[in-house]
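Explain this fold:

***
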Amino acid sequence: MPTESNNSGAARVRHVTVDENASGQRLDNFLARELKGVPRTRLYRALRKGEVRVNKGRVGADYRLVSGDVVRIPPLRQLAPRDPAEVPRQRLEEIAGRVVYEDAGLLVVNKPSGLAVHGGSGLNYGLIEGLRQLRQQGHYLELVHRLDRDTSGLILVAKRPAVLRELHRQLREKHVDKRYLALVAGHWPAALKTVEAPLEKNMLQSGERMVRVGREGRHAVTQFNVLERLTGATLIEAVPITGRTHQIRVHARHAGFPLLGDDKYGSERSAARTRDLGLQRLFLHAWKLNFTLPDEPPLALQADLDHDLESILESLRN
C-alpha cells in the first residue's frame, strides 16, 4: 500500500509514496482512487493550479507514476461516500457478451459506442464499473488505456498490477500495435500516409474538452492507409504512433477529411454526408491490437465492425 506522511505546516496535506502496485498508473487515476468522491473536474483543476505535485514538481494528468514517487495530495473536499452506481442489467449483459479474450492477467473487451470507459463528468458508470459489477467484489480490474465514449472497439483491462505495469511500459515504448478503422468524407489521397501535427487541449466555457492543432501542442503522429474507396467516402486504417486525446479525429480533420459521424470535429460536408447515410454515431473503431507479454505467445486480437457500421459500408458498396 502507498505510505503517507504529513507536512507539519499543512496538517491536512498528504504526501503519498507510490508503491509497486501503483507504479505505471496515470496520475489522474491514482488521484481518483486516493480521493474517492472528488469530482474529476476538481482533480484536473488541482493539477492545473499546481495543488498536486510529484516529487515537488508540476506534472500533467497523464504522468505515469514510478515506484518511489512522492505525490502531494491537497485537502480537497470529498463528497459523502456512496455505493457504486448500479449498472443496468441490459448493459451488463451487453458488456459480458463483448469479451473477446481473457486469461489470468488480462481481459479484452470490444467496447460498444456510447459507453464511456469509466464513470465521471456526469456519467454514473462506464465500462470498468460494469466489469467490476460482473466480477467478484474486490477483484483487481484496471483500465490499461482509454477510448473515447463514441469510439467502439478493443480495450485492454488488466487483472494484475504486474500486467498493468508491463502494458503501460509497452505503450510508452510503442511496442503495442493499435489499428483503427475509420470512414472519412471525400477521396483520401493514397499518397497521404502520415499526418504529423502537434496537438493542444482546450477547455471551453461549457466545460467541454476540445483538441486542436497548435504550435504549442504536444508532438503527435498518425499513419493512414487507404483500405477501400466508396461513393463520397474513404475507408481508412489509422495507426496512432503517439497517443494523444482525439488524435485520429483531429489529424483527419487537419488533413481535410473529417470522420463521418464526428459531431465535435466534423465539417459541413462530413455532416451532410453523415445525414445522407443515416449514420447515427462516430465511424471510428479500434480494430486490431498486437502485442506480446513476457513468457507468453504473441497476441493478435481483432474485433470486426459492429453491424451498424458494416451496414453503412454495404449501402455505399451497393
The helical segments are 27-34, 40-49, 89-96, 127-134, 161-172, 247-254, 268-277, 307-317. Residues 195 and 222 are 5 Å apart (CA to CA).
